[in-house]
Write a structure and sequence with these properties.
The protein has 156 residues and is mainly beta. It has a single domain, classed as M1 Pyruvate Kinase, Domain 3 (Beta Barrel). It is 13% helix and 35% strand. It is built from three helices and eleven strands. The strands form two sheets. The chain has a seven-stranded mixed β-barrel with strand order 1-6-5-9-8-7-11. A three-stranded antiparallel sheet has the order 4-3-10, with no helix packed on it. Strand 1 and strand 2 form a beta hairpin. The longest helix is centred in the middle third of the chain and has 10 residues. The model has no long low-confidence stretch (mean pLDDT 94).
Length: 156
């Protein structure tokens, strides 16, 4: 079963604006190049190095809020790094997601929606809460160059 990488985004500082990209390098040392959350600190095991969300989950949350079409919020408002479409992301720590030729990401946990979501749009936190709709967090296992349109696979 495969899906497609539909979006890439990063932010260079906490609460900074999201920047959408067509392609980016992702590494074990820095996560998504230029993203504040990706850098691994000495002596720390990264658990929140990279975040992924399903387009289908984002669209369901928008529908719950009565938003659609031109009224829907951009997926990057979720502040996730990667948008995947056509594939259900694993709902269990330890699963491995492969993107493009070489990037491999180990799922570490659910990306629970925080209060920041309600700052963006009242009710968004609740709309993202069911069934891991807020996405998954992970750590980079193998570096890779990725681009929008790359194939996404679940390895385990």
């Amino acid at each position: 079963m495969t899906g497609r990488l539909a979006g890439i985004a990063r932010h260079d500082r906490p609460r900074g604006p999201m920047e959408e990209l067509a392609a980016v390098a992702v590494t074990r040392a820095a996560g998504v190049s230029g993203d504040v959350r990706g850098t691994v600190r000495a002596g720390k095991a990264p658990r929140r190095q990279i975040s992924l969300i399903e387009a289908e989950s984002w669209n369901a949350a928008m529908a719950d809020l009565g938003l659609g079409g031109d009224n829907a919020l951009a997926w990057s408002a979720r502040r996730a790094n990667l948008l995947v479409e056509g594939l259900r992301l694993p709902r269990a720590p330890g699963a491995v997601i492969a993107i493009g030729a070489s990037l491999r990401i180990a799922v570490t946990m659910e990306c629970d929606p925080c209060q920041r979501m309600d700052e963006i749009r009242p009710g968004l936190k609740t709309a993202l809460a069911p069934e891991w709709r807020g996405g998954v967090l992970g750590t980079v296992l193998d570096d890779g160059e990725i681009a929008v349109g790359d194939e996404v696979r679940i390895e385990q």
